[in-house]
FixH family protein
Amino acid sequence: MRKWIIAAIILVVLAVAGFYAMRMMSPPPADLDVAREKMSAAGKYAVAIEPEAEPIQQGALHGWIVTVKTPDGEPVSDAEITVDGGMPQHGHGMPTAPQSTGHVGEGRYRIEGVRFNMGGWWVLKFAISAPAGSDEAEFNIVL
């Protein structure tokens, strides 16, 4: 009886490991929105992102520019931005702690310390706090 229990446990562990391996190796969803401009979740801001250098280098630290405007196109110059993200299919966050280094003019904010340590589907999340209120924007990046 003990051998059957051990065999069952091994099969469950292998099945779970196989499931996660398939999930991690699968391509991103075919309908994934990879737009680099969009409205924030509650519609308070028009947000755009761009890497400071193209193509995006895997493994290297790089910077991004996040542009924040009001829905009618006016630059937001007094926002606080925090950054988060990770790999949805792998279930982990960013390998670094990217941060906004401040406003660089015309609603543009520099984000430093972004690193994608592997290829695949990444999400960059920006929490924006400004006089119009707090809101969030998420962007999908595929390397």
Summary: Residues 30-142 form a domain with the Immunoglobulin-like fold (CATH 2.60.40.1930). The chain has one domain: 30-142. The chain has one helix and nine strands. The longest strand covers residues 121-130.
